[in-house]
Each structure stands twice: as C-alpha cells, then as structure tokens.
Design a protein that fits this description.
206 residues; alpha/beta; 6 helices; globular; binds 5-O-phosphono-beta-D-ribofuranosylamine
C-alpha cells in the first residue's frame, strides 16, 4: 500500500493556500499525503475555520508570537504531529533555527514573488507587490522553496510567472498572484512528495 505522508500546514491568515491543499487532497490530486494538523500563529486566522470545516485538527501555540514560550510550544506541537513535510502556507513568522534544524529538508514555503527578487525579512503581503511595481518589473510570480535559516533563501523547488499589467496596483497584482499560488502550492507539494517517494518529481510527471 502506498505510504501517505503526514503534512503539517502552518498559517497566519486567510488560509486560501491551505484550502488549495485541502481541496487537492480531498479530490485525490495529492494521493500520497494527508494534512494531519494546521498550526496558526494567529488565533483569529480565517484559515482555522477552513481546517475545522475539513475536519483537520488545529492548534495555536501558546505565548506571544516571538516569545520563547511560543517557539517551544510550536516545536512541541510539530514533534507531536510527526510530520514528514511541514508546509508554510501564508505563515508570517520566521521559524527559529531549532525548528529548521529539526525538520531540515522537510519544510517548504510559498512566497508571492520570483525569488530571489523581492524576498527576505520585511518582504511579505502587499509590500512584495509594491516593490514589484516600484522596480518596473514586467513579470512577477510566486515561488515554492525549501526553508533554511536565511529568510526566503532556500533552494527553489518550483516557480510560476505572470505578466505585470500597466494598470496593475499592489492589490490587483496580489490577487492575480494569489490565484497562481494556489496552483503552485499543490504542484509544489506533489513534487516534493514524489521526490520523497524516490520518483523523479519532474514537473511533467506531476
Ligand atoms: C499569500 O500571498 C502568501 O504567499 C503570503 O501570504 C499570503 C496569504 O495567503 N505569504 P493565504 O490566503 O493565507 O494562504
């Protein structure tokens, strides 16, 4: 019987990338992975409702976000979930070294730009799209990459790009890139799980 990889999804907000993964596992597009827990840095995150609707257990680490208590509790919740893969889907906190080391090579993140452009500390949400427009880029997109200690610096797994329209505002760009992210999120997880299976994970085999 094919192994079902255990996936922990970390969120901070709306959770539309989480929803894309929930839908892909439900319809069997991701056939060798199951979301075993959703962990949110924000107790008010709309994504927690999505987890509840899908019957997936959810947790919010105790303590203030950047506190030692929060970091220790997050590590405890992750170890408890025993994930094969940790997915940062709109998770806006920087993981600390202990977590990155404990799950080395098994943590991936989605970022709404064509990394290495417009990434790094402070580059998230609308700020990313403001920078794209300020820099006059004609294309933008989204990136799935492995998480390392350097923010948004890990090995790139997959990228998709779209054109920047003359009429684009940071908001219009953010919503068009978010649509792209949902597809990329699913393809990125499929690719990584296939590689865990020892299969090529080549895009065309996805
Ligand atoms: C996405 O653009 C993601 O790349 C960024 O936060 C946004 C939130 O998306 N990190 P979601 O609806 O919470 O998945």
């Amino acid at each position: 019987m094919n192994k079902k990889y255990r996936i922990a999804v970390l969120i901070s907000g709306g959770g539309t990338n989480l929803q894309a993964l929930i839908d892909a596992t439900t319809r069997g597009e991701i056939s060798n992975g199951e979301i075993v827990v959703v962990i949110s840095s924000n107790p008010e995150a709309k994504g927690l409702e999505r987890a509840k609707m899908a019957g997936i257990p959810s947790r919010v680490p105790k303590g203030l976000c950047d506190s030692r208590e929060y970091r220790e509790n997050l590590m405890h919740l992750l170890l408890e979930a025993r994930p094969d893969l940790v997915v940062l889907a709109g998770y806006l906190k920087i993981l600390d070294k202990e977590v990155v080391d404990a799950f080395w090579g098994r943590i991936i993140n989605i970022h709404p730009s064509l990394l290495p452009k417009h990434g790094g500390k402070g580059c998230y949400g609308l700020k990313v799209h403001e920078k794209v427009l300020e820099s006059g880029d004609t294309v933008t997109g989204a990136t799935i990459h492995y998480v390392t200690e350097g923010v948004d610096q890990g090995e790139i797994i997959l990228q998709h790009q779209i054109g920047v329209e003359k009429t684009d505002t940071p908001e219009s760009l953010a919503s068009r890139v978010l649509e792209l992210e949902h597809r990329l999120m699913v393809e990125g997880v499929k690719k990584v799980l296939m590689e865990m299976d020892g299969r090529s994970g080549k895009w065309e085999d996805c």
